[in-house]
Amino acid sequence: MIRVLKRYMRLYKAFFYQCLKEDMIYRSNFLTLVIMDIGFVCVSIILFKVIYGHVNTIAGWTFNQSVILIGTVGIVREMAYLTFRRGFLELGNHIRTGTFDMFMVRPIASGIHLGMRHLSISESFGEGMMGVALVIYGFIHLDTWSWIIFPLYILFLLNSLMIYYGFSLIINSIVFWVVKSQELNTVVYFFMETSRYPGDIYRGIGKVIFTFIIPIGIIATVPASALTGRLGFNFAVLSLFIGISFLCAGLFVWKMSIEHYSSASG
Amino acid sequence: MKKYISLFHINWQNSLQYRFSLVVYIGGYSIYIGVLLYLWSAIYSEGQSVGNYTLSQLITYYILQLMINSIIFSFVSWDVIDNIKTGNFSNFLTKPLDYYMYWFTINISGKMLEAVFIMITAGIISIFVSDYVSFPQHLSTLIYFIISIILGIILAFEMDFCIGMITFWLTQVRTFKYMLQTMILFFAGAMLPLDLFPPLLIKLAEFLPFRYLVYFPISIYLGKVENPLPSFAILIVWIILFLVLSRILLVRGIRRYEAVGA
User: Fold this and answer.
1) Which residue from B12, B205, B192, B62 is spatially nearest to A45, judged by alpha carbons?
2) Do the Cβ atoms of B196 and A51 come within 8 Å?
3) Structural domain tally of chain B?
4) Which is nearest to A176 in space by CA: A262, A116, A115, A89?
5) What ipTM describes this predicted complex?
6) Residue B84: helix, strand or coil by DSSP?
7) Rounded to two decimals, what is the model's pTM?
8) Alpha helices of A118-261 — where are they, by DSSP H?
9) Rounded to whole angstroms, how far apart are CA atoms A199 and A220?
10) Residue A239: other Cβ atoms inside 10 A
11) B204 touches chain A (CB under 8 A)
12) Which domain holds residue B118?
């Protein structure tokens, strides 16, 4: 187990440097991407600010706490780009042109290899940095806090990343059947966009759907709840359970789907 | 005219291939509206109110905004950019087709199918959230609404075409386009109703033409515009201005065109 992990760490490092080199070729692109990212995050903040211009809280969340939600989405996104996200964006092309073969014949798990082959440092860098800044900003404005919230925040960030990965595996697996992937990526994009709203807004059937089936009520809300000290023990355990379930479900669906892959290059 | 009709027909056939999109559309938009319904219900249930909107007016706003986003906004500039960048544009210079009219036709025929998709979607969503959907009281409101949408389609196309024309001067136009698009959506009222903005932003939005794309038609629908005729006049002036701009950019662009890769 540890040997396998070590091997993947070594591979990750190699891929990381390779992708970093690819990124470095387009240095001016990097700057525009960062500026664009910061612009997009600013638009989200302005929108929240406008809503908070009319109300004091949304389902109990103040503006400063909502800033932590926006920031957390940014951090999870950047973590995803550093691990798997861009691989899924390229998946449609690989399948259409048949280059997905490459991922099938190598002695690495294809779902991990795909992500590592397309690591991106620049793609979401601006949003990630903005995310860290926003979370710090929100944190400074907290009334009370204790040391325990830091490890909890990081634990639930990783949990959210796991959910995001599982969800991406499930949704993007559809591409093996329909070949066209544009819409699927849009679905995953909106999955993260709508995660900015606190999970506490959902009631009744919506609570069930947006916790268990489309867990946008968890991705940002649970880490941010941990940081703002509003996370109950039961819900914390439940979200870890959901994280593991999503990862397992994702890997299962992925495994089934690649069996459906028929190479195109011949 | 006949050549544009057959062009319309061919593109319509092409778009029909993507029926899978319909499933994603209906699923995705329903969930999106569901999320917004929960968000605004939570806000209103705490006894708070937002501007002079009732909850059902806001939900109606968002459903209409989704429809309008699909029907009004043109996305041909992606293809225009590709077309100029790859040098395929050279083909058009030799054909008896007007470049502007070509893309206008492509846009309209692509939009028709999307319009059908989105009407079905909006219809289904409206049944689910029927308590939160409001309908106009007078027939005239509906007629004004439809006119404003048709004019919006034209204006949005012209803006999009102008963005595409930038490719003649700037090859790295994509990121630039993303930023412009976000700004347009923001000031069009596609993210939030414009009258909820702080006073300074409202002033700015009123001055810009983008509000005619989303906020203006929806305001008519919701009965928030007493007499839309003066606004129609301004809208038509904007349409003429952007038409002239598109034409100037096209003529100047062709002069600069280098036929890359051809």
Assistant:
1) B192
2) yes
3) 1
4) A262
5) 0.87
6) helix
7) 0.86
8) 125-140, 149-173, 175-178, 182-193, 204-208, 221-227, 233-258
9) 8
10) 26
11) no
12) 2-260
